[in-house]
Design goal:
The protein has about 140 residues and is an alpha+beta fold. It contains two helices and seven strands, in the order βββββββαα. The longest helix is centred in the C-terminal third of the chain and has 21 residues, at about 95-115. F-type ATPases have 2 components, CF(1) - the catalytic core - and CF(0) - the membrane proton channel. CF(1) has five subunits: alpha(3), beta(3), gamma(1), delta(1), epsilon(1). CF(0) has three main subunits: a, b and c.
Amino acid sequence: MENKEVLNVNVVTPNGLIYDHHATIVVAKTVSGELGVLPKHAPIIAPLAIDEVRIRRTDADTHVDWIAVNGGILEVRDNQVTIIADSAERERDIDVSRAERARQRAEQRIQEAKAQQDSDQLRRAEVALHRAMNRIKVSKHT
């Protein structure tokens, strides 16, 4: 087996380390657009959008881990990719029924905020809906 460079990938939340593996590529959506990270990538720090992170592991060319992140920061330095997020869940850990209930609550809150013309409440409800939809989308990759 040839010795090829790999990325060390960690995803950390206030609850601790939720992901720690080697990878050949990491793809994440930043607030500026999609970012693909390969070994030897230049150092970078980028704010993440609420979206999925795709990580192709080294143990199989087809093995991809999917993680739902609710914003945060991605840092790349010396083949180390660190994602620090308020919350993040691997596809296998997502409780789909809980995410569906969160989606329904957010949709209800959006309707209430529109009826009350409360722009702050509307924005918070839209973010909650985006988070719930992201979790539902990522859960479908299992």
